[in-house]
Design brief:
InterPro entries: ABC_trans_aux. The protein is an alpha/beta fold and 193 residues long. Helix content is 26%, strand content 28%. It has a single domain, classed as Rossmann fold (3-Layer(aba) Sandwich).
Length: 193
């Protein structure tokens, strides 16, 4: 009887206890507009290879939230907007799909590259969020490319800005996806030359 009374007393508290942040109704993800067709075989015997590393990110991007640069020194986050996984990993995958589709190169992951790394692309995803002053999605990627073993390191900054109508999850996700694909296309053209 005592256990039953304790259980009944704790029952109203059950709705107040939370063991983590509330998950939004949907999560944002990136989708490459250019991909290697399903079933297409690739071989390093007939094509050059490239290893694409997950970019480094500043602390504001080291999570699953979408940053908004409110002022030059203030960062906020879009309410109820979360990525399905950190943007750096999604952007690396989008780059891999785009570079493979546009250049015909065999894109390798870090583990696969031990056999034949080919060209190596690394970089920093400096901006991947919303600029409140211009109401635009901004993707800035500082790329570093070594085309062949022993070759010089080449660096280049890529940036895309896409207007966003309202700072809410759906339009922000669509604009960032478009900007990320634009940057990935420019990077692929640079790697492929």
């Amino acid at each position: 009887m005592k256990k039953l009374l304790i259980g009944l007393a704790l029952l109203p508290l059950a709705g107040c206890i939370s063991f983590g942040a509330e998950v939004p109704e949907s999560l944002l993800s990136l989708t490459a507009t250019e991909q290697v067709p399903v079933g297409q075989a690739q071989s390093s015997a007939g094509a050059r290879t490239v290893t694409i590393q997950v970019p480094t990110v500043p602390q504001s991007l080291a999570n699953n939230r979408v940053p908004v640069q409110a002022t030059a020194t203030d960062v906020a986050y879009v309410k109820n907007a979360q990525w399905v996984e950190p943007p750096a990993r999604q952007f690396a995958r989008l780059l891999s799909d785009t570079v493979g589709a546009r250049t015909g190169r065999v894109v390798m992951s870090g583990a696969q590259s031990l056999a034949d790394p080919g060209a190596r692309l690394a970089g920093e995803l400096r901006t991947f969020g919303i600029d409140a002053a211009s109401s635009s999605a901004v993707v800035t990627y500082d790329a570093a490319l070594v085309r062949d073993e022993g070759a010089a390191l080449e660096k280049r900054r890529f940036e895309a800005r896409v207007p966003v109508s309202v700072i809410e999850p759906a339009p922000v996700g669509a604009a960032l996806n478009q900007a990320a694909n634009q940057v990935a296309g420019e990077v692929a053209d640079w790697v492929g030359r």
